[in-house]
Design a protein that fits this description.
heterodimer; A: alpha/beta; nine-stranded mixed beta sheet; two-stranded antiparallel sheet; 7 helices; 15 strands; B: seven-stranded parallel beta sheet; five-stranded parallel beta sheet; electron transport (chain A); ETF_a/b_N (chain A); ET-Flavoprotein_bsu_CS (chain A)
Chain lengths: 249, 309
């Protein structure tokens, strides 16, 4: 079984981004970039399926600027066998990415696609579901456990108020939640090996996909700042403030 | 212009989140219809019909719709989609699961987690864990939207008198099957809608110690939350997690106990009206957003606070 894992290059999760003064966007020049944390979990899960001999090949794919190659190399250092980059400088929105991924799926014919549940930059939480819709495949989002048996996959999902188990017919789409696994650290020898693994580059034009954005961003602003708070000396003072000043209890 | 709101329910009870979505729908202006897709969910339809601002309730009743499987529910929404300018879901696990599937089939962009309606085609939504607010405009003929429930005050659950109409249910797609559900039991108010939330973090040290947080919550009639660190360490169940990847809350009072205040946690609670932090580290970032901070050992301060209330 072939597993396809889409990965995204995003601003590192530890970076607190700033909004540009002209309010056109956030400022990500000279900011540390990394693989989206949920995608790391997706690569890890695919690699584990490969190690259990459930998967025979793991292909990482990324859509975006040339530097996304680094993200794909990381995926290959974790365990992906090869990588595909759909290279474009265009601003990609989830629908466009889902269409690009559908074209890659049509080409590669995987049985399973594992994506992160959301990217920590646009916080959209859409691409996996959209890809499932475009392919007419079943989906299991927010997965915390995945079990492949024959031509079916059982997935435990994190939902509001607890957990839910679904049984899907392959081929299928899975999106990862945080608790699916703990991604391994990449080792230096594996980073070296990843440099030799094949990386194919395609373009949206070659795939015949129109990636023009559908949503126009009119403005990006700072969220309203909270007024500075006070430090209270003890519990009694805290209770007094909550009762008499804030009047919330 | 008409708007379709997808009701969130468990076949017996309409979830409160739907009332927040109705408030967002009201800001758009136009006829608001509610779709109740489920199995034997007539009671839910009755409740939806009483919500203020609803013009019509559509009921699709079939066993295949019982568990809100994305494939079947999306197909049901698509079967009704023509004629609607806006299709709204709550930004809950269920809404987030289905909405993008509907949008992709309609070949439109989906707008996630809106916190404000500027006009019928322009919306505000947080990006980068809430560190920036983007104003986006959609040129698509249909706007498929998920609504952040804490961004809109719920409409009244009673006072409306909408007509209830049965619609044909779609056939089971057969692509996926529901196996089981494990519901975390709780007598406390639901985290997402609670007026007071008390959350614990890594500072608690163990699941056993989490009891000091629970005791304070019970005294306040509050819901209990947790940081990701506390959940990952096994101190608290997953669905208590507050943050970018967990639940987004905006209660009247949020008490953070032993939580440092990472960006990802703040994303889930910084719109709370009053924030209280109890932490022994005066440098903890949580003090940057707290209205009232108490630099103290939580194992002394929390029980003391519980007693003082």
């Amino acid at each position: 079984m072939k597993v396809l894992v889409p990965v995204k290059r995003v601003v590192d999760y530890n970076v607190k981004v700033r909004v540009k003064s002209d309010q056109s966007d956030v400022d990500i020049a000279n900011v540390k970039m990394s693989m989206n944390p949920f995608d790391e979990i997706a690569v890890e899960e695919a690699t584990r399926l490969r190690e259990q001999s459930v998967a025979t090949e793991v292909v990482a794919v990324s859509c975006g600027v040339a530097q996304s190659q680094e993200t794909l190399r990381t995926a290959m250092a974790i365990g992906a066998d090869r990588a595909v980059l759909v290279q474009t400088d265009a601003q990609l929105q989830p629908l466009a990415v889902a269409k690009l991924l559908k074209a890659v799926v049509d080409k590669e014919q995987p049985q399973l696609v594992i994506l992160g549940k959301q990217a920590i930059d646009d916080d959209a939480n859409q691409t996996g579901q959209m890809l499932a819709a475009l392919l007419d495949w079943p989906q299991a989002t927010f997965a915390s456990k995945v079990e492949v048996t024959g031509d079916r996959v059982k997935v435990i999902r994190e939902v509001d108020g607890g957990l839910e188990t679904l049984d899907l017919k392959l081929p299928a789409i899975i999106t990862t939640d945080l608790r699916l696994n703990e991604p391994r650290y990449v080792t230096l020898p594996n980073i070296m090996k990843a440099k030799k693994k094949p990386l194919e580059t395609l373009t949206p034009e070659e795939l015949g996909v129109d990636v023009a954005p559908r949503l126009k961003t009119l403005k990006v602003a700072e969220p309203p700042a909270r007024a500075a708070g006070v430090v209270v000396p003890d519990v009694a003072a805290l209770v007094d403030k909550l009762k008499n000043e804030a009047k919330v209890i | 212009m008409s708007i379709l709101v997808i009701a969130e329910h468990d076949n017996a009870q309409l979830k409160g989140a739907t009332l927040n979505v109705l408030a967002a729908a009201a800001k758009l202006g136009g006829d608001v219809h509610v779709l109740v897709a489920g199995a034997n969910a007539q009671a839910v339809a009755q409740q939806a019909a009483q919500a203020v601002g609803v013009a019509k309730v559509l009921v699709a009743d079939a066993p295949a719709l019982e568990n809100a499987l994305a494939e079947n529910l999306a197909a049901q929404v698509l079967a009704l989609a023509s004629g609607y300018s806006h299709i709204l879901f709550a930004s809950t696990a269920s809404g987030k699961n289905v909405a993008p599937r509907v949008a992709a089939k309609l070949d439109v962009a989906q707008i996630s987690d809106i916190i404000a309606v500027d006009s019928a085609d322009t919306f505000q939504r947080p990006i980068y864990a809430g560190n920036a607010i983007a104003t986006v405009q959609s040129a698509d003929p249909v706007k498929v939207i998920t609504v952040r429930t804490t961004g809109f005050d719920a409409v009244a659950a009673e006072g409306g008198q909408a007509a209830i109409e049965n619609v044909d249910a779609v056939a089971d797609t057969g692509l996926s099957a529901f196996v089981s559900r494990e519901v975390a039991k709780s007598d406390r108010p639901e985290l997402a809608g609670a007026p007071i939330v008390v959350s614990g973090g890594r500072g608690l040290g163990s699941a056993e110690n989490f009891k000091v947080v629970e005791a304070l919550a019970d005294k306040l009639g509050a819901a209990v939350g947790a940081s990701r660190a506390a959940v990952d360490a096994g101190y608290a169940p997953n669905d208590w997690q507050v943050g970018q990847t967990g639940k987004i809350v905006a209660p009247q009072l949020y008490v953070a106990v032993g939580i440092s205040g990472a960006i990802q946690h703040l994303a889930g609670m910084k719109d709370s009206k009053v924030i209280v932090a109890i932490n022994k580290d005066p440098e903890a970032p949580i003090f940057g957003v707290a209205d009232y901070g108490l630099v103290a050992d939580l194992f002394q301060a929390t029980p003391e606070l519980t007693k003082a209330l």
